[in-house]
Design brief:
Layout: E1 9-14, H1 18-31, E2 37-44, H2 56-63, E3 79-82, H3 85-89, E4 94-97, H4 104-111, E5 120-123, E6 128-131, E7 134-137, H5 138-146, E8 150-154, H6 159-163, E9 168-173, H7 178-188, E10 193-198, H8 201-223, H9 228-235
Parallel strand pairs: 1-2, 1-4, 2-3, 4-5, 5-8, 9-10
Antiparallel strand pairs: 6-7, 8-9
Helix pairs in contact: 4-5, 8-9
Bound molecules: 1,4-dihydronicotinamide adenine dinucleotide and 1,3-dihydroxyacetonephosphate.
Length: 240
Amino acid sequence: MENGHAGKHRVAVIGSGNWGSVASRLLASNTAKLPSFHDEVRMWVFEETLPTGEKLSESINQAHENCKYLPGIKLGTNVIADPDLESAVKDADMLVFVTPHQFVEGICKKLVGKLRPGVEAISLIKGMEVKMEGPCMISKLITDTLGINCCVLMGANIANEIAVEKFSEATIGYREDKEAANRWAKLFTTPYFLVAIVEDIEGVELCGTLKNVVAIAAGLVDGLDMGNNTKVSILLLKAF
Ligand SMILES: NC(=O)C1=CN([C@@H]2O[C@H](COP(=O)(O)OP(=O)(O)OC[C@H]3O[C@@H](n4cnc5c(N)ncnc54)[C@H](O)[C@@H]3O)[C@@H](O)[C@H]2O)C=CC1
Ligand SMILES: O=C(CO)COP(=O)(O)O
């Protein structure tokens, strides 16, 4: 993949909530070490004004911490918060989508015609867009709107645990382009975050999304004190 940056890939993260901040931290720890990536990770911030009156993006760039969505965790000095979407992505050839799913379509529409040629994307977003024509997976929404290849990364990945480097694993789903999937895996893998690749975007994305429906049902079982036998029925999808 020719990226026009003297061989170094540039990464931008679209989203800076709990998972977006943790993903940026993890990616920045790798870009600082791996020679094939530019150090800086640009993180698009949906701008908010904090109770102190300070802008969230300014606070992140000063403290290297997202005090609203990931308090108490240093992101790395090479994570740069940028409240301007166009500016955040303009130099990137690797784009990580990690916003709540309901904002993706609007974000993609703003990005049409603003991306570098050959840019690759990955979605960490759980959920789907439900339209009149039927449900649409988020990776397909990104590919269809922007005309770019989009892998997915999914797993049982509670962001706050990964933030404190508790072990976790995830799977990247890709279509045809194994080289791109391996590049994403290299960018995300750390000793505490193990990443595998599978040539099945839909399977990985659907499993990542639907497991949360099961998780809600399992939580209801706990809340209603229905017991472990009922929970197993839920996990085996027999009680639906
Ligand atoms: N938090 C977690 O442990 C995990 C989250 N995910 C997925 O990652 C995605 C992002 O989740 P979180 O980072 O947890 O979100 P979050 O709930 O922590 O943050 C919400 C984000 O949305 C932004 N936002 C608010 N209004 C907006 C608008 N109009 N347009 C664009 N952005 C807006 C907020 O500024 C904030 O950055 C979701 O799809 C979630 O399912 C996946 C795995 C783990
Ligand atoms: O899937 C998750 C953790 O594995 C979290 O997803 P939500 O943030 O949508 O609950």
